[in-house]
Amino acid sequence: MSLQLTDIVKSFKEDLVLDGVSLDVATGETLVLFGPSGAGKTVLLRLIAGVIEPDEGSIRINGADMDGVEPEDRGIGMAFQNFALFPHMDARENIASPLIARRESKTGIKRRVEDVARLLKIDHVLHHKPKELSNGQKQRTALGRALAGEPSILLLDDPLRNVDAKLRFEMRLELPRLLKDQQATVIYVTQDYKEAMALGDRIAVMSGHGIAQIGTPEDIYLSPANTEIARLFGDPVINLLEVTPERGEAGVQVKLSGTAVPINPGYTGSIGHSCILGIRPEGIHFADAGTPGAFPVTIEAETPLNEKTVTLAATENKREILISRPSGTSAPDSGQAHIVIDSGAVILFDRATGNRIALPATDAAKGGAA
Amino acid sequence: MEHTSTLEKVLRGTAITLVILFFMFPIFWIFLMSFQTNETILRVPPSIVFDPTLSNYTALITGKLDTAAGTLEISFMKNLWNSLFLSAASVAVGLVLGVPAAYAFARLKFRGSEDIAFTLLSFRFAPPLLVLLPLTIYFQQIGLADTYLGLIWVYQLIVLPLILWIVRGYFEDIPADVEYAYRIAGHSWGATFRKIALPLAGPGIAAAGLLAFIFAWNNFVFALVLASADKQPVTVGALAFVTASGIQYGQVAAGIVLSILPTFALALYAQRYLVEGLSLGAVKG
């Protein structure tokens, strides 16, 4: 079912949490709400679930206004970050609770609970109370409870937050298939950008009482709306350097360590004013000294991060730059090196507001993101 | 490390023994007294060697008190029954009224909720004697004086604030998300109260009920003023042992032993709920 939020305002006493949030989620879509804690993600979920009421604005499910509609009548499934399992009921009763509410037949309930449990690999612990379950099993039970009633809208509040890293990785692989099988409209809250990129058809980045940017994972990664979002997505974090765009022989360029680096030909922003240049660490490559656009840096440290190796280098005027390359590829060990910047992967931001001012969406940049 | 040295064990054992001795000795002494006649009780120096007699208990149970001045009629068993009935009925009424109210105070933040809750608690601060005189007059006017109904009503001053405030705390300890989860699963507000809030606060409700029962059982002043002989609980009835020919220590002791028994049995039975209640933190799963 589709979901529309229009101009939602919500505050708790004096604390404004959401200020004019509008959101349109299509049937069957998985929308990830991403943002730092305190950005209002959980509040938004609770508003959709109906356990709290918005101060202003409307929530519509399939076009029907939800004002005054009780949580039990909204056809929603929800998994909580802290699981919120019923401690006095075993896993089976927990998962069965949406089915019991609908007064389904005993055999129907039993079959559905066991199907869900098998899907989530918890069929062997169905007789356990929540306190006898491991965190991973609790999380699966909570997920099972949300899925069991085959809700048309599924709200998942950071379900992988409280499980260990190995399980989180496994679930991140399993969840997309699971969610697609449900054919439900999914709102997924997370603080982990990798989870957001892996699961979302679209991502809504929340900050400052509202949605700062909404788009596909690729849009957000390649064209972040501002420096804050650019920093939130990507590990190692994006390089942000202060530069001044100027006109050169080959179009607009910026000077880094005295070397002209051409930037996106589509640039239409101001010339001669200071800007922030954003460049992802994978958009920087080591090069020979003679390569056009190459400029010298001093290598300071190097960290292997599984599949990639990150180098910390400094330009001549002591500005630090992170460079990422696939592990196993060769690079200068230490001391002086030259680097070139992939001009297609450059993002420019306004210095005062931090907002993006140029579109770098070229093929070169897409190669960098993958 | 969970290792305790022998010295620590000995010290701990000694400390516990001392505490138990300190608290249990009066009860133990009364228990011995209940099997003695007035003469052996008043011996100087006292001794724990004596010929046990059941005369005190038979006197209480048959209702005939033999004193130097002759045979007195006492209605101890009736009083015991009154105590049991008044306390149980008061706690029952208190739970029926107090538990839903406690839930409302815990979950719904309505205008003046704190003030109302505090006013109810303040009933516990007021000296009972202060309200007794007007209460007696009103009760006589509306025909509630010397009725079980009137007494149970007045006992709400004791049990209701207690139940309300203890149970409210237990309801507040239940994570709101657990209740939300049940509602989102498709259950009504009422079903959530019955199937989630009540069972999870169960140990707390049992503990509050037990405490309220003990407080109601021990009440003296309300019953003394508002009840006549046939409605009196044991606390008031025990005055009958102060006779013209002296205080009947043996019967007093036997009366105490008998009147402790119901609360003692209840406490023993409910102990596991009390312990469970104290470890309610386990709810956060």
Automatic annotation (TrEMBL), chain A:
Residues 3-233 form the ABC transporter domain. GO terms for cellular component: ATP-binding cassette (ABC) transporter complex, substrate-binding subunit-containing. It is found in: Cell inner membrane. SUPFAM superfamilies: MOP-like, P-loop containing nucleoside triphosphate hydrolases. Keywords: ATP-binding, Nucleotide-binding, Transport. It comes from the Bacteria. It is a peripheral membrane protein. One of its GO terms (molecular function) is ATP hydrolysis activity. SMART domains: AAA. InterPro entries: AAA+_ATPase (IPR003593), ABC_transporter-like_ATP-bd (IPR003439), ABC_transpr_MalK/UgpC-like (IPR047641), Mo/tungstate-bd_C_term_dom (IPR008995), NA-bd_OB-fold (IPR012340), P-loop_NTPase (IPR027417). PANTHER family: MALTODEXTRIN IMPORT ATP-BINDING PROTEIN MSMX, OSMOPROTECTIVE COMPOUNDS UPTAKE ATP-BINDING PROTEIN GGTA. Belongs to the ABC transporter superfamily. This is ABC transporter ATP-binding protein. It comes from Zhengella mangrovi. The lineage of its organism: Bacteria, Pseudomonadati, Pseudomonadota, Alphaproteobacteria, Hyphomicrobiales.
TrEMBL record, chain B:
It is found in: Cell membrane. It comes from the Bacteria. Residues 80-270 form the ABC transmembrane type-1 domain. Signal peptide: none annotated. It is a multi-pass membrane protein. Keywords: Cell membrane, Membrane, Transmembrane, Transmembrane helix, Transport. GO terms for cellular component: plasma membrane. PROSITE patterns: ABC_TM1. GO terms for biological process: transmembrane transport. The keyword Kinase does not apply. Its main location: membrane. The chain crosses the membrane at residues 12-32, 84-106, 118-139, 151-171, 204-229, 249-270. It holds the Pfam family BPD_transp_1. Belongs to the binding-protein-dependent transport system permease family. This is Sugar ABC transporter permease. It comes from Zhengella mangrovi.
